[in-house]
Design brief:
The protein is α/β, with parallel strands linked by helices. It has 3 domains: 23-113, Chitobiase, domain 2, CATH 3.30.379; 118-448, Glycosidases (TIM Barrel), CATH 3.20.20.80; 483-729, N-acetyl-b-d-glucoasminidase (Four Helix Bundle (Hemerythrin (Met), subunit A)), CATH 1.20.120. Helix content is 47%, strand content 9%. The chain contains 28 helices and 15 strands. The strands form 3 sheets. It has an 8-stranded parallel beta sheet, with helices on both faces. A 4-stranded mixed beta sheet has the order 1-3-2-4, covered by helices on one side. A 3-stranded antiparallel beta sheet has the order 8-10-9, with no helix packed on it. The N and C termini lie far apart (53 Å).
Amino acid sequence: MKKGILTAIVIALGLSARAQVNQQASHDFIERVIPGRSVSFVVEAIPQENGKDVFELGSRDGKIVLKGNNGLSIASALNYYLKNYCNADIGWNGTNLNLPATLPTVQGFIHKNTPYQYRYYLNYCTFNYTMAWWDWERWQKEIDWMALNGINMPLAITGEEAVWQDVYKSMGFTDKELDTFFSGPAYFSWFWMGNIDAWGGPLPQHWKDSHRELQKKILERERSFGMKTVLSSFTGHVPPSFKDRFPKAKVKRTNWDAGFPDVFILDPDDEMFETIGKKYIEAQTKAFGTDHLYSADTFNENVPPTNDSTYLDGMSKKVFNSMAAADPKAVWVMQGWMFHYNGKFWGQPQIKALLNAVPDEHMIVLDLYSDAHPVWNRTEAYYGKPWIWSMLQNFGGNISLFGRMRHVAADPAIALHDPESKNMQGIGITPEGIEQNPALFALMLENVWRDTPIDADAWIQDYAKRRYGQVNAKAGEAWHILLNSVYSGGLTEGGPESIIVARPTMLPKIDRVLTHLDYDPKKLNKAWELLVSATYSLQQSDGFQYDLVDVTRQVLANYASLLQQKMAAAYQSGNKSDFKKYSTAFLQLMDDLDALLATRKDFLLGKWINEARANGITEKEKNLYEFNARDLVTLWGDKESGLREYSNRQWAGLIKGYYKPRWELYFTQLNKALATGTPFDDKAFDKQVKDWEWSWVNRHDNAYTDVAKGNPVEQAKALFVKYKDVIEQAY
């Protein structure tokens, strides 16, 4: 990177070579992570190295010494110690903190510095597909996890709607007008990105007020670690009534093509664009402060009105100027998703025009999907802009064993040292959903403090040892198989779904429910067998319990597709006996899967719904949030929604309470057609199932628990006994 550009960015972000460590905050953090053990640690400050974070680790006078240039580096030193000296692991889906009474000493001194200026985290979609209902307690855990893993550049967009309310009300808009603008809480990501208006609303005032306060806590804690937060900015999305209030404004209609009404975008050429953008940054800064980083994705999944380079250059300048007018130190953080998603539109001239309109020191580009579809290597590394290599991995918050582990282990470091990568300045994780596939995320974050490729085979064995608290040969062999099967995924948008989550069909797959496997399912079945055989030694491990349930879930989810196709063949051949056999087995499989998933809090629909309701202070609010929660993971809109099943989840409660009744309805109708020799009435079924789905989405029946029940290991073992031979014969 050119020295001048790096210096300018360092100045713009306010990064300092001076060590900034708050002793009390660091000890409070250690106490939160390992309660009762903070007295065993000494925290000391050291300066940055070459403008980047650094930590050191050692022992002195019977205590563990953690040194770093900020709270985040101290946290990373702690994580390194816990993983490498205490055989511990901290994750979303199972944590092992079975520490020895006397903490191991560190022989010599460990010194680590990161090659990456930025370690980015989150995607707009994550804030809804996973984080929609989080309270401060859950956010606090996530921020601690971020610090442990060296993340220093989190997207921070909670509470944005409160700031927009301030801005638009200052311009004369009424609450009634804004009710047709703000979406419900489960749909903010697409509201913020200018895709939809109002769906899931109207948004209660209490939500705006409470989440303004929540954002203040989030930002205060993130900044206390030394993180530089990425806030939001104006991209042109305005209320539907804007065209009436300002008839001379250049407002155009656009549509996301997902079954929702048009939204309204203010043309960057309009003189009001910069005015509103400035107002917003000023109001946001007053409420939340600033680290001078602003996210803006003007055409996220929307196509510009023209591919003319002059227009795109001018539009980009106006968007940036709307930030810089309020904050001269503004740095535009742009998600590069559109360059992949609308790749036919965004050719090299268009991308170049958009990017080159902004000075290099005032823009950072997220190569959002580097793990599968990098754009940096076909744009001359974003034409010299600082950019960040990112792992997307999950779409829609779907539950599926999936990832490209060998790419995640090697590609960031390979890109870092590639002369063609030019100003690659960081790495990041940008998933649509989290709290799944914990091994993949742990592997990606292993890159933070190193600049060479990771040996995935060796790493996965060490991960299993840390996660389970001991070496187990069978578990190690299982993870070797997982690495070379489910975690050697192809170029699909996330992992394969199961046919059980599809609206009933004879087809092996439907839109939004893709069931193709990029691996031999028999290999996964072998890993399942190995994990089951390791239960005697590992069953007390929280992480092992989750992994055993997750692998069992995936095996049964895959097998469901075979049963469904046998059912379809039996129906089409008129074989009543086989139709009954396979349809009955299919429904039983769903019951078994639901009971298995009910044993882990990670897989409970009731947890999702009850957390949504907990955000409300009136019954009306609670019911609105429950509608949002139910709708997002099922229809994603109204009963005719084209995004149906996009955010499908293999969750206890959702399988037995939503997916299974649809299939039962389908089988009843098919059975009737077989018995009477009449054709199946697709149109009648389609209407009936849509009515049923919409009714379910609108219920408030307190039908789903948020408390896990049953023994996960015993359930998995019982299903292994029941299904092992049947599945082996099926393949």
